[in-house]
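Students often ask what a 'structure token' actually looks like in practice. Rather than answer in the abstract, let us consider Transmembrane transport protein BCCT family, a protein of 302 residues. Its sequence is given first.
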Amino acid sequence: MSSEKETPPVKRPAYFVWTSILVGCLAVMAVVNPALLTNSIADISKFFYLKFDWIVMWLPLLAFTVGMAVALSPRFGKIRLGGKDAQPEYSFMSWMNMLFTAGIGVGIVFFGPIEALWHYYHSPIGIQAANLPEYQKVENAMSLALHVWGIPAWSLYTIGGLVMAYFMYQHKTECTPAAPLQYAFKNKKWAKPLGITVTAVAIISIAMSVSSSIAMASTQISSGLQIITGMGFDTLGWKLIVLTSIAALYTAGAVLPIHKGMKLLGDATVFLSILMLVFVFITGPTHYFLSTLVVSIGNILT
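Now compare that with the structural description of the same chain:
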């Protein structure tokens, strides 16, 4: 969205320095003792999944409900971000392409197709899944995969982005996760330290998720090239080349203006994804794809 007044850039040294130190320490730990870092992250994740699994299950449903309520509300659903005269800076398709690329990324090429197979062999539904008929195990696996990549995840993205965008465009706050909290509780003494903590956690989370995504992508691309060509691409040298190339593209897309960086990457990614989808759809078992898709969507809705 464009508006008459642009939000001036804001310096954020309060949390940049020590979050950079923490991220640097994690990077050093990943090189020096990767097993320790992996086990530590796994233990932390296991703790949260065991103790707060109910939050993980309810948050997407809550986000979807709130999002639909806002969209259908005669009062809030008609609010135009940036003011009543604001106009979109990008076309609808380019905007959707950027959202699609940022929300899914490399997973759509690799783990997206594999996840259904993972659920087929390791169903989280329960031990009874092993005794189900073959066709029902396939339907359950596809339904779970579509559920994970579908409405629940995008509902969380939508609510998070909507809250930040509303306060940034309507109240001229910073574009940070903590800005809505600091604005809503600006008269409270604890608002500033809370905001710094929230932003720092967001920075560390983004750094870790992006680095892990890029690392997995380099491994998967190298392995994929070796499987397709039969050549020795699955080596440390080729993985480093792929990793450097991906990091360079990502950095260029982040540094360049959005219309030259992320927009072009988003358009290219979606175009290639559509080509791959059409190729698989035409050359594969088309009737089976359509039948499984319809049944899986029906299972999700019911």
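One point worth highlighting: The mean pLDDT is 81. Ask yourself how you might have guessed this from the sequence alone, and why that guess would often be unreliable.
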